[in-house]
Amino acid sequence: MRKLISNHRLMFVILIFGFGLVVFALAGIVNPVAASPGSGPGPNSVSAPVQVPDNAACLFCHDKPGMTRSLPSGETLSLTIDSSHFAESAHEGVACSECHTNIVTFPHPDFQVQTLREFSLQMYTICRKCHEEQYNKTLDSVHMRAVAAGNTNAAICTDCHNPHSQPVITDQNGALLPEARLRIPETCSRCHSAIYETYKQSVHGTALTQEGNTDVPTCIDCHGVHNIVDPTTNAFRLQLPDVCARCHTDPAIMTKYGISTQVLNTYVADFHGTTVTLFEKITPDQITNKPVCFDCHGVHDIKRVDDPVYGLQMKQNLLLACQRCHPNATTNFPNAWMSHYIPSPTQFPIVYYVNLFYKFFIPAVIGSMVIFVISDVVRRLIERRKGAKHV
Length: 391
What we know:
Blueprint: H1 2-30, H2 32-35, H3 55-62, E1 68-70, E2 76-78, H4 83-87, H5 96-99, H6 116-123, H7 132-138, H8 142-148, H9 157-160, H10 178-188, H11 193-200, H12 203-209, H13 219-223, H14 234-248, H15 251-257, H16 263-269, H17 271-282, H18 293-297, H19 315-323, H20 349-390
Antiparallel strand pairs: 1-2
Helix pairs in contact: 16-17
């Protein structure tokens, strides 16, 4: 009898212990924070890592054509990403989740935008994560100043660089690739189409767009890349001769086309250039009516100087250019301009030989006068000593 009672007690203890284990396990399932020390929101908590989807998982859906979303404005936002273009882009090795950090689950979290432009303005700041240097340069640009002033149509990163199809534009040394240079005017034309059409007809634009000649300047060579300044300011105007000189004083480029590399030196040496240089160094914010390069040659519509219709080698065209500042200029007024060439036996030979004559004539005259003065002084000293002896 006692043995039977003892066995019942043992079974009762085992049942109580087992029931406690079940309750403890259920408590851990219902409240995992209490079941696992250090997993709560306290200082020692350890969050389970979130499984971030890879690009293949993202493109499984987004590579399908026709994925769109209608916005309240009535516009349609395309959600399709062409995987073949992305694979050839500069971002090919970048994970989707590195830019779209808030998308880790499906369905994706909702985003509240009214228009396509509002969507772009929300997204472009992501570029700063990897391209901080370039992004910071844009902050002082004419485009970002316009955005800050409320002009939401001013260019932002993604207007020039499509993040899902942006090709590589530089080589290993950071130099711009030739094919990238050819695309620059078309990129700028998305906003500046009228200027692009004018540029295409210029000596620079024709060479680039029709001949594929990458020696000629594109938009960024004159205006900058990410730190584009306001071209309507006095400071930009005064710096323009230096901008043009970047190409026009480079013998490696100018020799190919038989163009003088003395363009800056000859400009600075005359009254116009000297005045502009002084303004640039002393009062860069002050306006001056002295001409800079584009006042004579044009801005985006620059023509060859030997163009039979518009070229400045045509005397009538040159006179008209001078008369913009000198309305009373006569037909002979432009004859003093030597087309930025230093006089030589082949270029303006009369001026060259006159200069050569004076190079010898002036030292000879001054030298003769010095010799005459010295000999006269010596003669007077000798005569004075002779006179002193006779006394």
